[in-house]
Amino acid sequence: MGLALFPLPLPTDDLVRPPKSMRFAVAEPVNEGVLMNPRLFPVIRPCRSASVLGTLLLWGLLASPLVASEAVTVTLAFETQVLDLDTGSVQPLDPAAPLDPEGADLLVAYHADRSPHAVAVLADESAELAFLSGVSFDSVTAEDIATLSFTATAPDRSLTGSDTLVVRTDTGAVFKLGQALEQATAVELTYVQLQ
Question: Under a CB-based contact definition with an 8 Å cutoff, are residues 110 and 80 in contact?
Fold first, then answer.
């Protein structure tokens, strides 16, 4: 059985003790003597069609912000596509246009004189990058962010499958990218939002 919010007429008394059946929906234990002002908190009633998670989200009782935890794999064509990490969209890049396309964070350049050829380039002046050479994608966590040195200029280094990039976008969101797999005209990358 889930919970749903139902607005009920407010009683004339300003303070009402919450019923015992409602205490399980509160993030912290409720002290027996705690009173709740119904003008500040809607009354919760049981309902089969609503989920407990949905109710907790509405109440804002989840302690941390929701962050995408599933890995996403994208393929970026060399120098003709950019990745907007905040939206997850791959956008075409006009070679004649300036390099700062709206919302885009990263593109992959082709360096003909080395192998692998892929070189990460920041597409947004506000984005920052930490290049972790030889650090596996799976080993980088949100706790590592505070220890990283971010730069507004991506290093001129080949991107291999054993390297990980950590990008802070113009919105402040932080993503890790890695597991690079170079193809003839593109690079496949996996990314996850860390913060």
Answer: no
